[in-house]
Amino acid sequence: MASYLIAGERLVRALAPGGELEQEQLPRKLRAELEAALQKKRKGGDHPSGAARLVSFRLIRDLHQYLRERESTLYLHELLEGSEIYLPEVVKPPRNPELVARLEKIKIQLANEEYKRITRNVTCQDSRHGGILSDLGKEVRSVKAVVITIFNFIVTVAAAFVCTYLGSQYVFTEMASRILAALIVASVVGLAELYVMVRVMEGELGEI
User: Fold this and answer.
1) Sheet of 4-6: strands edge to edge?
2) What is the DSSP letter of 168?
């Protein structure tokens, strides 16, 4: 926190012999402290001359209070023309090597955890994608099996009807009797085939 002022040439001239402050009859203690502060130069990194006359804020407040009590026509802002607030250079403490090494270790651990989290999400997405394709393949195979089963059922029933119709000509002479016999045999074969088809479909659905 700033607590000093770099005195400008105006303040130095005003406090010098024959200056403006000499007519104000400053208290001996206040004048002595101001002269001592102006004669003592300290190093200032930002000051052009490399050294600065530093006056504490306390002395500036005492000077302002004295001028106000005397109802002087000399104002403080006029005396401080060209002066600057002194900001001392902040010296950074050396960093603890152990603390620096620990912080670097923590940063590496956090980076590794973040990388694992990202790669885990990618792996999960790939596995879900593969699972969807696998389920889709199973469904396609199941539909294909159902279509083949239905096609076999139709072919089997039709074949049973045709064979019975053609073979019954040696037993029945009338067409109606031959058709009836063919329908009966085709129905029996169809029911048997339907029973087998239902059992096969139940087994496949159970596997899915």
Assistant:
1) 41-43, 51-56, 4-6, 84-86
2) G
- DSSP for 19-81, written as a single string: SGGGGGT--HHHHHHHHHHHH-EEE-TTSTTSEEEEEEHHHHHHHHHHHHHTT-S--HHHHTT
Q: What is the pTM of this model?
A: 0.39
Tokens 């001592």 belong to residue = 36
Q: Nearest CA to 204 among 153, 144, 157, 156?
A: 144
Cα(125)–Cα(119) distance, integer angstroms: 10
Supply the DSSP symbol for 146: H
Condensed to tens digits (0 to 9), the pLDDT of residues 61-119 reads: 888 888 888 887 778 888 888 888 887 777 778 878 888 888 899 999 999 888 888 88
What residue type is 7 in one-letter code?
A: A
